[in-house]
Amino acid sequence: MSFQFAYTKRFQKHFAFLTEKEKNQVKRKVILLKENPLHPSLRTKRIQGTKDLFECSVNMSIRIVWYYEGNKMMILIDVGHHDILNQYG
User: Fold this and answer.
1) What's the pTM value of the predicted model, to 2 decimals?
2) Which of 26, 49, 77, 81 could serve as a FRET partner for 11 with CA atoms 20 to 30 Å apart?
3) Residue 64 pLDDT
């Protein structure tokens, strides 16, 4: 199953601050996320203390935060270094 994505303004703003290398890593992981959100290399998990927010790893430092909208849509709400998760838990 392949998901559709919507990107929040926050995601777009924070994506713009990443280096070119980090942006390319995010793009590759988003493709993987679209095809299989549970792919082992994404290390997907629910954000502790939330009911419907999820995170996955882009690399050892960068995370993508999202939630599901129905069965076919993912709303990517944030991207950035690991400390972005502090505001969601």
Assistant:
1) 0.92
2) 49
3) 97
